[in-house]
Amino acid sequence: MSEGVIENAGLVSFAEVEAARARVRSYIPNSPCSQSVAFSERFGCKLYLKLENLLRTGSFKERGACNKLVQLSEKEKERGIIAASAGNHAQAVALYATTFGINAKIVMPEGTPLVKISRTKGFGGEVVLHGTNFDAAFARAMELAEEEGRLFIHPFDDPAIIAGQGTVGLELLEQNPYIDTVIVPIGGGGLASGLAIAIKETNPKVRVIGVEAEVIAGMKASIQAQKVVELPPATTICDGIAVRRVGKQTFATLSRYLDDVVTVSEEEVASAILLLLEQEKMIVEGAAASTIAALTAGKISGIEGRKVCAIISGGNIDVNVISRIIERGLVASGRIVRLDLQLADTPGALAEVLGMIAELRANVLEIHHNRTFADGAPLGMTNVELKLETRGPEHIERLRARMKATGYRILDHL
Asked: Is 0.70 topped by the overall pTM?
């Protein structure tokens, strides 16, 4: 991977990123790059957050969309455009198509949350729902592009898109020219590619580290294989970076410029979403939280005492899943636990357990006391499932130790 400034013949150039900055700066304000005091203390470095979630559409995607669409000829504009997306790219294309007077059609999977469909329509896009996943929507968009003569706007593997996303890097260096390490989410690779070009061509000593979801790490797999590989479908909290096949251009760019790629688990991302909510009072999507997840999980070394920037790529998280993600984060951080106990089916037995829990300062959230269907319980015994609010892993261990010492049999815990 990266070893200083590298020849990038055939790829997006630094000059193209600079030109993109000149084009989009009158449409897109600089996103803040703020130091997080809490995270700086936690990680032993000066940690800055580049807040792309505060842009109008809620993500970095509008940079690439703006740079692409502002360059279209009048003839291309008259043809109209089409894109496939389940979220951020859809909204960005719709917004700037409306801004530049272009008819835009966006193909989205049928299961796309209503709020994302509504926002895309609100920005002026015509939404077509097709298929059960992004691949089906992408295929339909390509068909419609052919049938209707529309120009297809690729979400990441397009030089103008990559150059537009690279304006994040130029902005960052203006805001904090002495940064040592930049951490960026990777899906298809458009953001990471543009940013890496901007950063490395300005200062090759700055480390650029990518983060992918563990269950669908396409760029890491491709770099290891030294060719673009296609992964099987996977479900992840990081839906914004759940890309089965990275781009050819983005793969070539990141193979040259990227210093490292790390992966994060679903539990690590859920915990990071919760941490950002509690520490920074900020709701972000899973892809954006992946950079913080990599730090909290200790996946990135050599940051002690250094200046580090985490790209917070977007905040478009479905409100219907926020509570589930938060709860998953609470479980991962030891703030919620499930304990399945077997106890005597006698009056007062359950009260004794609840008294012990209260004494240890845990809070009962849910309780299921099952006499009739107590699988595996001997006659005279019953199973009880408890969902408890706790203060961390050590608190959970104290609860378990006390219950075992008292003679209760613990069947299961999460």
From this structure: yes
Q: Which of 59, 193, 313, 333 is catalytic?
A: 313
Q: Are strands 336-344 and 409-413 parallel, antiparallel or unpaired?
A: antiparallel
Q: In whole angstroms, how far apart are CA 153 and each of 57, 80, 243, 389?
A: 17, 10, 16, 47
Contacts of 65 (CB under 8 A, 6+ apart): 89, 92, 93, 95, 96, 153, 161, 164
Catalytic residue among 50, 61, 200, 220: 61
What are the structure tokens assigned to 374, written together? 């107590």
Looking at residue 334, the DSSP 8-state letter turns out to be: T
CA distances from 403 to 340, 354, 407 (A): 11, 11, 6
CATH of domain 334-411: 3.30.70.260
SS3 33: strand
The class (CATH top level) of 14-59+158-326 is alpha beta
Query: Phi/psi at 67 (nearest 5 deg)?
Result: -65, -35
Asked if the domains at 14-59+158-326 and 334-411 fall in one CATH topology, the answer is no
Residue 171: phi and psi, rounded to 5, are -60, -45
Give 191-213 pLDDT, tens digit per residue. 999 999 999 999 999 999 999 99
For the question of residue 61 being annotated catalytic, the response is yes
pLDDT in tens, 16-71: 999 999 999 999 999 999 999 999 999 999 999 999 999 999 999 999 999 999 99
Q: Is 313 a catalytic residue?
A: yes
Domain boundaries, the chain: 14-59+158-326, 63-152, 334-411
29: which DSSP letter? P
- Please state, in angstroms and rounded to a whole number, the distance separating the CA atoms of residues 338 and 278: 23
What fold characterizes domain 63-152?
Rossmann fold (3.40.50)
